[in-house]
């Protein structure tokens, strides 16, 4: 069982009942550790020549998934995933430059060489590996949440309305599979309700518009912690799977990213970032590529 998420110095996200919105302009007093992370010459040597020459690591991100990646009061991406990406750039001697995009557009942007990498809590799946490679750096489960006082069982959710962020693993795989099992058993399907952002999905539960939400465990725990008692956990996390940084299948950048991340594990900066955000339970010791295909 994963421990409860604690986010240091994070200003609470509040549900604004009158507007129906969750304020995602949160701030954190935890400074990025990238400035203290040194260049790793072995990782730099693996960089494709064009990226090394540019001095920039361009990163596609959907900054709507707190505490992994979200926006500060000035609209800049922050979160533990962002700090990991900043650390990778530092190891490679590159400047990180973020391109905020919708989640569904990030992998196509990597494939089309519009960004070098995608960092947005991507669950590594065999289907996604058909398009890009994943440098695996974390393990997260799925966790449901319901309105406080409302009992919801993720394993017996037939006929319920469940909120998901569009194109996430919960949207494309997990909830549809549960719904199909309901239909196969002669029961009502799950009514999956898609939202463009996780904030909107969280807000729908808090306002009683849906029965529950499904999201990655760090995100669900953050939503519970930051909605002033409006949400509660619906069971425990399950279906643990790897997160991966999306990279092109050509060009060789994946090996450089893998080496940079492994260097962060070895020098302790990786674990320091995760512990600072209270998500250390998902830490791994060895960085791999395309773990889903090997599972």
Automatic annotation (TrEMBL):
Entry keyword Signal: yes
Domain Solute-binding protein family 3/N-terminal per the UniProt entry, residue ranges: 56-281
Origin superkingdom: Bacteria
Keywords from the named record: Signal
Secretion signal, residue range per the UniProt entry: 1-24
Pfam families (alphabetical): SBP_bac_3
Gene3D superfamilies xref list: Periplasmic binding protein-like II
Coiled coil region boundaries: none
Protein name stated in the entry: Polar amino acid transport system substrate-binding protein
Organism name: Alpinimonas psychrophila
